[in-house]
Amino acid sequence: MLEKTKISDPELYSIVEAELHRQEKNIEMIASESTVPIEIMELSGSIFTNKTLEGYPGKRYQQGSENADKLEIEAINRAKQLFGCEHINIQPYSGSTANYCVYSTVLEKDDTILSMKLDQGGHLSHGSKANFIHNFYNFVHYPISMDTEQIDYDILEEMAHEYKPKLIIAGGSAYPRLIDYKRISDIAKANNAYLMVDAAHIIGLIAAKVIPSPVPYADFVTASTTKTIAGPRAGLVMCKKEFAKKLDKGVFPGCLGSMHLTTMAAKCWLFRHCASEEFKKTMEQVLLNAKCLGNELENFGFRLVSGGTDTHLLLVDLREKNITGHDLDETLNKIGLTVNKNQIPGDPLGPNETSGIRIGTTATTQRGMKEEQMKEIAEIINLAAENINNSDILNNLKERVNKLSSEFPLYSEEDFKYLNVK
User: Is 118 flagged in the annotation as binding?
Assistant: First the structure.
């Protein structure tokens, strides 16, 4: 796949090759990551790279769009069938840009948005002061219950009545529980607000129909096409038919410029793949693995935020282990197990230290791992946390990780040959 690059730029090729070997040897458990099929990589670098195009099928600003039109129409039809949505725009470049496109569609500057706070499960693009978007709108954050560490719908309802938001956002980047979309939809309607669900993390589970879909209840559903859905680095926005024209105008020319046809081609392939029984079975196992891993971690004395998970994602409180998220994720990385530090609700530590880690089971499941391997991974995490300065034990744990990764390869031998690295 990189034969020409290997000859023309050996230095660059060696970096790409090293990254593939890192992924092959490590066990990836960052909740926002997955392993894409070879077809996604092929299409993400296809001949469509050469084509610049703006607008929509039949209404382009450049000639030579006949094949791109067919591509976009086919991708849209596949996506609508997959998600059961009335309208979808597949031009956004990422989940965050998909969110910005919705904002530009229905909001005016300084309108009020009600969203979840970053350190309670939300996302940077939902109004974090670290993100530029907070300068344009009045973001008010609804809290989760500190007793259950889940959304308190009564408080959300009270805040919607008090602040009269133009938009309510549900979903985030570190919320492990299912959301009552109907309840939030009722709250939004009662207060003349739009409802946007950010489904970036769980969109693969939704596509496989292993968890409830927000599509029947939300005015807008945004997502990235990476994470659980394991596609190219891009995004999408679904909406009710009544918002279709307004959304398309909000995407282009309202927010974005020329489209990325290569990732659009990859998305087109992805939407068909996600309708397969193979994908559904993988997503079912993702949920089983997350439950199993969570239970095992609890048996080792870790506390799970909200008491567990309904998705692919676990948020683990490390305070009872007297270790920070920063120290544990660095230690785990050294032995080949990749997670990420993450703040927990009410975290006394900042985002660079944190009292927690976030773990996901998508990439491990894609390699064929099941409950037996989750139990071993939980034991490895526990031993690493309790022996952070013991090099002998950490070296032994690294050998165990290497053994696991070799037993469950990243790609098949045939795929590795195609990637031109073996």
Answer: yes
Residue 123 is classified by DSSP as -
304 is in an annotated binding site: no
Output the average pLDDT for the chain.
95
Q: Calculate Rg over the CA atoms of the chain.
A: 22
CATH hierarchy code of domain 41-275 = 3.40.640.10
Residue 37: its H or E element: none
Domains of the chain: which residue ranges? 41-275, 282-407
Judge whether residue 2 has pLDDT over 70.
yes
Q: What are the two backbone dihedrals, phi and then psi, of residue 348, each rounded to the nearest 5 degrees?
A: -75, -15
Q: How far apart are CA 181 and CA 217, in angstroms?
A: 6
pLDDT digits (tens, 9 = 90+) for 191-213: 999 999 999 999 999 999 999 99
Close Cβ partners of 186 (under 8 Å, ≥ 6 residues apart): none
Backbone φ/ψ region at 94: left (φ over 0), alpha (ψ -120 to 50), beta: beta
- Average confidence (pLDDT) over 223-249: 97
**Does 124 appear as a known binding residue?**
yes
CATH class assigned to 282-407: alpha beta
Residue 125 has pLDDT above 90, yes or no: no
Are 306 and 176 in contact by the 8 Å Cβ rule? The answer is yes
Question: Which position has the higher pLDDT, 57 or 418?
Answer: 57
Tokens standing for 107?
């909001």
Q: Is 149 left (phi over 0), alpha (psi -120 to 50) or beta?
A: left
Q: Which helix (H) or strand (E) holds 359?
A: strand 356-360
123 among annotated binding-site residues: yes
State yes or no: pLDDT of 422 exceeds 60: no
CA distance 65 to 361: 40
